[in-house]
């Protein structure tokens, strides 16, 4: 029934607007589910393709478009995260607001200012993390990826993206060794063994990462022999502890003495005087990174910030996602109250949205682009961001013809955005939700095009052809 509905919709197109009448979903394996939507931007009541558009699907990182819209509606363009250093006599206070860009260099600058203004002897340092509360990892984040950087904890105290880079080396005797820069206050051990590819497959053995709340990591399992190191990115397990240890290191480097402790919380101290304010880039630049690079930490810390500002309380995943729904409802008339939102990044497997709800978001963004200016922040197919190397977008006519946001989880491959005319102007909006995608592995080693790539190429050609047709029709209609 689904294939017939889609094919019927395609046959309604003007002849020049599509390359073939092929149903793109035929390329997807049995058992997969999908929702597709394609509609013109200049006819709000028309929908060309609508396949299961009211069914709920995990949005994955396409949710970041929703988060970006809420942020633009609720925060001023000159919004910046601020990290404030102040003092009372020889006590230092650093008040954090969840700046995902705050770096070790910025921290060092703060401490230099403290030394210049207060002196080299410090009694106590307070790290105020009370702007956020609750979980640092949202409900539904897969437990097995919590140790890697794209699932770094969403914390008020953030340093270097809550991420540490390292590398795993394989030795000739079958052992492995791991390297982490000496200045990073985490410990990593490895008992993993290196094997040939054949032995590794026969052993059904992969690398496994374990960690605790003290920023200790252990690598076990197997890895295929390598001539070059395997890059690793460790999500900081405890941002508070990590930052505290970095502060101690930087104090020593600056010749400063800490007599007391580094404490967490909001101190009740009289006569507190500001010394230095570190500000992030303004909101549009933060959203550009969030959308172009699909940065989860940016998205979730912005989400918690929305909750804090909208409800006047410490930000959390709970009030942040509630704020997103309310902001879209009250400021844009977009109703996504029935959606299930656990975070703002899309990393949670519990999130659920429909293609029609995403259509509302895309249409509002387009209709208000003169003030929102969000479309230009999204990746262009085959050109930049997370779409630069996507297999289905590397060649014409798809390359450069779509502006969109991708999203992927285990078995889920999504895309939503705009089809462009031959002048690069948006003419259509489209949504692609594919989940429960589990194709059989090829039986031969001969390179093949994956079912997903075949599906996407077919569907995106239809989007591109339709958008070009709309553009030509509009140009002919103009005197």
TrEMBL record:
A GO molecular function term, named singly, is:
serine-type D-Ala-D-Ala carboxypeptidase activity
Which organism is this entry from? Vibrio mediterranei
Q: Which GO terms describe its biological process?
A: peptidoglycan metabolic process; proteolysis
What are the alphabetically sorted keywords of the record?
Carboxypeptidase, Hydrolase, Protease, Signal
**Family the entry assigns:** Belongs to the peptidase S13 family.
Enzyme class, broadest EC rank: hydrolase
Record's signal peptide: 1-19
Q: What is this protein called?
A: Serine-type D-Ala-D-Ala carboxypeptidase
- This protein's record includes keyword Signal: yes
**Database matches in InterPro entries:** Beta-lactam/transpept-like (IPR012338), Peptidase_S13 (IPR000667)
